[in-house]
Amino acid sequence: MDVAIKATGLRKSYGDFVAVDGVDFEIPKGVCFGFLGPNGAGKTTTMRMIYRASPVGGGSLVILGEEAAGGRNDRKIKQKIGVVPQEDNLDQELSVRENLEVFARFYGLDRKQAKARAVELLDFVRLSERADSKVLELSGGMKRRVLIARGLVGAPELVVLDEPTTGLDPQARINLWDRMRDLKRKEATLVLTTHYMDEAEQLCDSLVIMDKGKIVAKGRPRDLIREHVSSHVVEIDMATSARNGSDGVEKATSELARLAKRHEQHQDRLLLYVDNGEEVVTRAAQLLPDAETLLRRSTLEDVFLRITGRGLEE
Amino acid sequence: MRLPGDIDLTTSVSVWRRNLTEYSHTWMTNVLPNFFDPVLYLLGMGLGLGMFVGRGVGGLTYIEFIAPGLMAASAMQGASFESTYNVFVKMNFAKLYDAYLATPAQIQDIAFGELLWAVSRGLIYGCAFFAVLCGFTLFGHRVIVSPWAVLLPVAMAMTATMFALIGLTFTASIRNINYYGFYYTLWLTPLFLFSGIFFPLDNPQMAGGHAETIAWFTPLFHCVRLMRGLAQGPLDWTHGLSALWVLAVIAVLAWVVPRRMRKRMVH
After folding, report:
1. Which of A173, A185, B70, B169 lies 20 to 30 A from B198 at CA?
2. Sorting pLDDT into bands at 50, 70 and 90, what band is A311?
3. Residues A68 and A213 placed together within one structural domain of the fold
4. A74 reaches B (C-beta below 8 A)
């Protein structure tokens, strides 16, 4: 298996603040690899070290066969990487086409090649008809697509996407996911950060969860769910039962909890992590006829909650 | 092609060309107005004030005296505006350099590309004004009279390079765009007024006879002296010394600027 990125004891601090605290990970070529975690977990700092905007603070980081620590191989590494940044830093003074052409020149393409590349990429992100628009005239989702196209002008072996869909409406997100799946089919290695768990489940073959500068879990999304939680969650809203004074709410709760692998109670809301969903739902209906019961698949969000003991967006 | 200081010239030229693309859209509003600045000073001061400076300066009429210095000021202003406000906005508001740095471009390539552009802009203004002065000469004013005047564009490029580097040094050192108020009012304007463009500094009554000595330590003074020497002669060793003065400042700041910008951008 070819390795795209290998980090060993990777660190980065700003003054006293340790942003990345000695992480190890290995990203195989050709996969979509995710970095998940809440804001401030160290994802973006890790990305900045990968795309050589930040010097490596400590440890080793080998990217496509080149050691990034020390900075001597920056040009070589950056030539093979495409970056889709978190914030919109498109060139507002230029048209969409000019944006792509200017950046293509930085990768060593000549004028003719740059023009051809811009046409090809505008087609890829479905923006050919907006080629001569000013960047200012585009919607948020379109700008993000231009950023993706710009990240691809150097025909990169590795594409780094930092929070690619943050702040977009659902339709624009789904559109972007399609583009990323297209990219995966082209066998590029994708590295993305996100704090949307559904995005990670949709796109990532493998991922790590970061919290406070450390990696707290790694694996395939389904495996992580199986390992850390259960296949399903039963959510029971007992507010009505409690109000109606249904007898034995407490007794019912403890019986249901015994049926589950694990449970959590937040006021009148009972979360049961189960592998035998149907059975638990049936039993809940008997014990708490007034309660509202929902059976759903476990998500990475449950994994995250379980591991860190708190929600993602707080 | 790689220049000293690990500058990739192709990348720098791409930065330069990006600016050219921007200005090809907006030259009418962005480039044209500043061209009139020195022309207005030439007419206003030269013709207006010149009426009261009847005996002229050192055998020249007043308008002939101030014309070469205004050429230096013109190159200074073109290079300064570009290396201050425009670079600041690209670096801090538009985050454009962050985007450049995510490509193979390195900070020194970007700095050199912006320097080339600022010098180009200084040269555009300087040469346009030079053309105006040639026009005046054709109509009988003794403005451009020395054959050494063919070297004026070289002096303009040196002037623009020095002031672009000074501007970049300042830009890489400030966090708030409002500091340019100081840069323009307390730095460029005094240089403009007291570098020997509008009156000779070797007058024994001026600053106790030390005016020229004080001005010697400031940058525009040397540019004005060079322009005047090349346009109207006679050239002597003081002009050579002034050229060396400018080149020395360029050499020092060419070392400082990429380091300052790296400190500012890469962390």
Report:
1. B169
2. low
3. yes
4. yes
Domain boundary among A161, A185, A220: A220
Strand ranges of the sheet holding A3-14, from the earlier edge strand across to the other edge:
A17-28, A3-14, A58-63, A66-67
The DSSP bridge partners found for residue A81 are A158
In a domain, A157, yes or no: yes
Q: How far, in Å, CA of A115 to CA of A92, rounded?
A: 19
CATH code for the domain in which residue A261 is found: 3.30.70
Q: Is A106's CB within 8 Å of B266's CB?
A: no
Tens digit of pLDDT for each residue in B57-111? 888 999 999 999 999 999 999 999 999 999 999 999 999 999 999 999 999 999 9
> Least CB-CB distance to B98: which of A53, A93, A107?
A53
Q: In the prediction, which pLDDT does A313 show?
A: 45
CB A47 within 8 A of CB A162: yes
Place of tokens 């020390």: A70
Question: Do residues A239 and A97 share a domain?
Answer: no
Nearest to A125 by CA among A102, A96, A103, A82: A96
In a domain? residue A147: yes
Q: How far lies B29's CA from each of A70, A101, B67, B184, in Å?
A: 45, 24, 25, 21
CATH number at residue A130: 3.40.50.300
| A11 neighbors A58 (Cβ within 8 angstroms) | yes
Chain B, window 81-110: residues with a beta carbon less than 8 angstroms from a chain A beta carbon: 94-96, 98-106
Which residues lie across from A8 on neighbouring strands? A60
Residue from A13, A56, A93, A157 to probe the interface with B (highest B Cβ count within 10 Å): A93
* Cβ atoms of residues A51 and A191 within 8 Å: no
| A213 and A251 within one domain | no
Contact A98 B21 (CB under 8 A): yes
**A305 in a domain, yes or no?**
no
Same domain, A15 and A85: yes
Using DSSP's 3-state secondary structure scheme, residue A288 falls into coil
How many structural domains comprise chain A?
2
